[in-house]
Design goal:
- The protein is α/β, with parallel strands linked by helices.
- The protein folds into three domains: 2-181, 2-Layer Sandwich (Beta Polymerase, domain 2); 187-373, Rossmann fold, CATH 3.40.50.720; 401-456.
- The chain has helices at residues 15-21, 28-35, 80-99, 103-109, 116-126, 138-152, 158-177, 187-195, 214-225, 240-247, 255-260, 270-273, 302-308, 317-330, 367-373, 379-429, 434-456, and strands spanning 2-9, 39-46, 50-57, 111-114, 206-210, 230-234, 250-251, 264-267, 341-345, 362-365.
- The longest helix has 51 residues, at 379-429.
- The chain starts with a strand and ends with a helix.
Length: 460
């Protein structure tokens, strides 16, 4: 058995490329387990700034190589390295097919971790230490939901379960024993802080939330914490009313009218609804709110992605323009009299057409803006968090070592039990009394068995 993780994240990739990688991958876990007899289990973690695949791969050479899909087949003899290479090749091939990106580009997009590095990486991710906004707490919930989805799909295994549960336990320990997440830093909070530069004071602001997933819930909570009282929710899926009732906000049935009534629109439906067909994306232009071009890092591969991808937007230029006209009419003035509007797009699969940023009177904030403006955590707090993380990793490694040793000892004992029985049968066949045959077999084999058991326990 070996655990493997494949990571594509904001650290190495343009967000447009990251978005395209996750296209139509909602069944990836099932596909990976079905594709190869060696893939015992899988957990897929997809957030607004990362896409990760965790695999439990069988290294047993008795599993036939022909069980692997042809695109991932490797030359015999089967080794641990070849099994891991086959598993990652299968994953990148399936992701390439789903995303319509070239296989070579998909391969380069992922960083592969094996051995102890898998746990070290996931523990950092679950604790918010690897996040776009360091210390964010949403990521722990996203990790938990990824594990829950794998449960529902019956894709978890003992090693994956222990890995994720220990990572979440360490995340909780960091949150409770350090100040890393005490100031509530998150993608949502950074985005709202930026939006406040061009919106009315929060207690007087009208905010429309587009979407009803986990990020929408986090957005409503963050808005309430800032004193916002006028919050509406819209969902193209028809879930707005139920979400509004559960969060005690107002449901909106007509999107243009709801936008016209809002000072700030926070769009986050793409985090849960997946990719949609339509117009190709384009790199985010400089936000009118933050007019320093450095706030939007260059998207090195955005052109390549734009040729390959195709999406439509919940908030397009036409919808915003119609809302602006309605707002101006309500103010009994020309279109330019419409009150300023801030559009915040927190969806990896974009909800808002980035060309909205070029519209007069409209501010635009997306994940690239958040990434460029994410605050750094204090060094002392990071040191404390790293110490808790190291302790959690050490405990996890110790427990796994003990489990491995116990399994190895059990295997040795069972092996020698079979050898003893075979020896007894042979002696009895030559006329030796069975009790005496048992004693002889024990004398012949016990010393070697004890030596092997000590070796399995690491004592010799």
């Amino acid at each position: 058995m070996a655990l493997i993780s494949m990571t594509a994240s904001h650290h190495d990739l343009d967000l447009d490329l990251l978005e395209q990688l996750t296209r139509d991958t909602h069944t990836l876990g099932k596909s990976l387990v079905a594709a190869s007899a060696r893939n015992r289990g899988c957990v897929v973690l997809s957030t607004c700034n990362r896409f990760e695949v965790y695999l439990d791969v069988d290294l047993d050479a008795s599993v036939p190589e022909s069980a692997l899909v042809s695109t991932a087949r490797v030359a015999a003899p089967v080794t641990a390295a070849s099994s891991i290479a086959a598993a990652t090749a299968t994953a990148t091939q399936l992701i390439s097919q789903a995303s319509s990106l070239p296989h070579s580009l998909t391969q380069r997009a992922f960083t592969v971790h094996t051995g102890p590095d898998v746990a070290a990486h996931l523990f950092r991710v679950a604790s918010g230490l690897d996040s776009l906004v360091v210390g964010e707490r949403e990521i722990a919930g996203q990790v938990r939901r990824a594990l829950r989805t794998a449960h529902v799909d019956q894709l978890t295994t003992g090693p994956l379960e222990r890995l994720f549960q220990r990572a979440l336990r360490t995340s909780k320990a960091i949150a409770s024993s350090t100040a890393l997440s005490s100031d509530g830093r998150s993608v949502v909070s950074v985005a709202l802080d930026l939006a406040s530069q061009a919106s009315p004071p929060w207690p007087r602001a009208s905010v429309l939330v587009v979407g009803t997933g986990a990020y929408a819930g986090a957005t409503v909570a963050a808005l309430r914490a800032r004193g916002v009282r006028d919050i509406a929710v819209y969902s193209g899926s028809g879930r707005a009313h139920a979400f509004a009732v559960s969060h005690q906000i107002t449901p909106a049935s007509d999107l243009p009218s709801a936008i016209a009534d809002a000072d700030v629109v926070v769009a986050c439906s793409g985090n849960s609804s997946g990719h949609r067909g339509g117009t190709p994306p384009s790199p985010s232009p400089t936000s009118p709110i933050l007019d320093d071009p450095a706030h939007h890092p260059a998207h090195d591969r955005a052109g390549e992605v734009a040729k390959q991808s195709s999406i439509s937007y919940v908030l397009d230029v036409a919808a915003i323009a119609a809302a602006r006209r309605a707002s101006a009419e309500a103010a009994d003035g020309p279109e330019g009299a419409a009150r300023p509007l801030v559009v915040v797009d927190l969806a990896l699969h974009r909800d808002a057409d980035p060309r909205i940023a070029g519209m007069a009177g409209v501010g635009f904030i997306d994940l690239a803006t958040v990434r460029a403006n994410a605050p750094a955590a204090a060094e002392e707090v990071l040191r404390e968090a790293e110490a808790v993380l190291a302790a959690g990793l050490a405990e996890y490694a110790e427990r796994e070592d003990m489990r491995t040793a116990d399994a190895a000892v059990t295997a040795v004992v069972e092996e020698f039990a079979r050898k003893r029985e075979a020896r007894v049968v042979g002696l009895v066949g030559r006329g030796v009394d069975r009790a005496e045959a048992g004693r002889r077999a024990a004398r012949e084999l016990n010393a070697e068995m004890h030596r092997r058991v000590l070796g399995a326990q690491g004592k010799i």
